[in-house]
Design a protein that fits this description.
cytoplasm, D-Maltodextrin-Binding Protein, domain 2, 29% helix, histidine biosynthesis, alpha+beta, 3 domains, Alpha-Beta Plaits, binds adenosine-5'-triphosphate, ATP phosphoribosyltransferase, 9 helices, EC 2.4.2.17, 31% strand, ATP-binding, binds magnesium ion
Length: 299
């Protein structure tokens, strides 16, 4: 297989998305070796290589067809999309699917003790951010005139330095805000990691691998929450017990040898199964309840 027929995937080199993204590819069955320069990983059992770059560069690399796929936060995707649109760049990259990690939100934060009612409180203020396009759209949609102060990092110290009144930055736990005496005031955008793909048509071979990869990712994401439940249930309680099984479609019902009034119920539950659920099932008459992890799933 020649080099051009191998899928090239851009991942963040070192940061919050790196470990989860590599782990995801490994769970999809990819075995890889890392290049000497640490800038690439070569897939050993799939025609797929990984290129490690700064997350801000990922949308450009994919838009320019240097990479076929990229994994990056929706916040970066949206900021780039708006900036490309403003500059008339086309065609844009495509968003393939969202992933279940990298969750955070882009929020307005104000110095502790500042009163904030709604976006109108931003009128005439200076707001520091690394997401000028998303913030400008937020202000425009609310008809608020304010000054957007674009920074490349360390936004949280802008109010203390007197560079801005408020900030618009990424938050997950909020501990960075607390450390800087800032309070979260309003969410501008929710974010999580996502996969984007090149706008340039790819070969049938690559298309096939992109399809296989997305199917496997879908399976990996589904099994994380899924459990296989097995239990014994009195026949007359079956309807009630089925209602208590979280996120399960058609369970398998089997007769139990020598116990005519009881059946075995097996079901894949696509939601997390908590102790409360098991206690509820037991209360409804179920016995011999077993909960097993699901390793792989292909819908
Ligand atoms: P790079 O050197 O690649 O440019 P970075 O400093 O821009 O790295 P990270 O801080 O590693 O980026 O964050 C990468 C992505 O992780 C963010 O764009 C966002 O989508 C997601 N993320 C999740 N939680 C947070 C958080 N609390 N703060 C910042 N980003 C977060
Ligand atoms: Mg970055």
């Amino acid at each position: 297989m020649d080099k051009s027929s191998r899928l090239k995937v851009a991942l963040q080199k070192s940061g919050r998305l790196t470990e989860n993204s590599l782990d995801l590819l490994a769970r999809c069955g990819l075995k890889y070796s890392r290049g000497k320069d640490q800038l690439m990983c070569y897939g050993e059992n799939m025609p797929l290589d990984v290129l490690f770059v700064r997350d801000d560069d990922i949308p450009d690399l994919v838009q320019q067809d240097v990479c076929d796929l990229g994994i990056v936060g929706l916040n970066v995707i949206e900021e780039k999309r708006l900036s490309f649109q403003t500059r008339g760049v086309s065609p844009l990259f495509e968003q393939v699917m969202v992933l279940d990690y990298g969750k955070c939100r882009l929020s307005i934060a104000v110095p502790d003790g500042t009163e904030y009612k709604d976006a109108s409180s931003l009128r005439g203020k200076r707001i520091a951010t690394t997401y000028p396009n998303i913030l400008a759209r937020f202000l425009r949609e609310r008809d608020v005139q304010a000054e957007v102060v674009t920074m490349s990092g360390a936004v949280e110290i802008a109010p203390r330095l007197g560079r801005a009144d408020f900030i618009c930055d990424l938050v997950s736990t909020g501990s960075t805000l607390i450390a800087n005496h800032l309070s979260e005031a309003e969410t501008v955008m929710e974010s999580q990691a996502a996969i984007i793909s090149t706008p340039v048509p790819v070969t049938m071979e690559k298309q096939e691998w992109i399809h296989r990869l997305t199917m496997r990712i879908d399976g990996v994401q589904q099994v994380k929450e899924s459990k296989y439940i097995m239990l014994h249930a009195p026949r007359e309680k079956l309807a009630e017990i089925r209602k208590l099984l979280p996120g399960s479609e058609s369970p398998t019902i089997m007769p139990l040898d020598g116990a005519g009034d009881k059946v075995a119920v097996h079901a894949v539950c696509r939601e997390n199964v908590f102790w409360e659920t098991l206690e509820g099932l037991k209360g409804a008459g179920a016995s011999a309840i077993l909960v097993l992890p699901v390793e792989k799933m292909l819908a």
